[in-house]
Write a structure and sequence with these properties.
It is built from twelve helices and 15 strands. It is of the alpha/beta class. It has a domain of 163 residues: Rossmann fold (3-Layer(aba) Sandwich). A seven-stranded mixed sheet has the order 2-14-7-6-5-3-4, sandwiched between helices. Helix 8 packs across helix 9.
Length: 384
Amino acid sequence: MRKNSTTLAAIGLTAALIVAMAVQGTSLPTALAQSPEATNAPALSGWTTFSPDMVDGKVILPALASPLPENCQPPAMKDKYTIAMSQANKAEPWRTAMNQQLEAAAKEAGFDIVFADAAQDNAKQVSDIENFLTQGVDLLVVSPNEAAPLTDEINKVWKACIPVIVLDRNITNTGYSMFIGANNVSIGKSAGQYVAKWCKDKGLAPCNVVELRGLEGAPPAKDRGDGFREGIKDNPDVTIIASQNADWLREKAVPAADAMLRANEKVDVLYGHNDPMAEGAYLAAQSAGKDLSKILFVGIDGLPTPDGGIESVLQGRIGVTFVYPTGGKQAIAWAKLILTQHIVPPLWVELPFSSIDPSNAQDVCNQYACPDAKMAEMTPEATP
């Protein structure tokens, strides 16, 4: 097939932006959003470019000419399709919710879906993806444990003419069909801005923050940390005095937070990169005999489950959290468009997020039918 010059130009643009991101420390969503050249490329034969009404979220980088390498034909039409999901670690409640939403959406679409859990093991996730490739699945959805160790294997599936949707955590290049995820830098920045204002309103100078970070090497951990640091610049009295990784897990957050609390007499804010770690920080502060009424606990995820962030805010443990959508429903919707209609998706779709604090927690709980929802006020909505 003759190479499409527009496609090559778009690929070259993306590669240049990735290099710039690596050199300058700029997040890829920000770099792509700032590019005036990011426009749809003409679809190759057999493909149709997406239309705006198909997008649930914000297009950060529009479509290339094809969601597969140029030597690949569009997927063959079939009576039955099998979707594979390679999950980074289903022990995290948010990832369990992602799997549940993927499964429900796949069932509604008439797809079979098979899951593999990497359990935070990069080598196992590489093996899981290799097994899916051997099995000849129709499309791969993958949420990488870490970016660099998974990039080559994900590229390998895509180069084998199997569409790949990367969900939540990105890799180090764009050798896939599309990426779906919220902007972790923006969420982190919003958390930082909330903390900056809270500290100012409380008259805390200095205002000391302890941070519990996600898995080292996972892009969300870096992005939520970097964004938070950008947000607290609104208040020069806010300082991060200690930071440790807890790998997204409450059981690891408890001893990590305990150690930092004991090493620092004055702690005003505990920021967890997700709600389970914020809950772990709360438990540690409680065990250490701290006055919990004077500490702000900040999380991210906002699940409507019994142990999720919405309930934590309602019950007064977490002061603020941010709804981080899993993208499960959107991933299956795009899988169906790619496989059954040969639609070229946007290369990057950013999902919206929102904040939950005591002022709106009950309304959000009602909206998403969390355990403490007031039934008369509930509205029929999907989970975030």
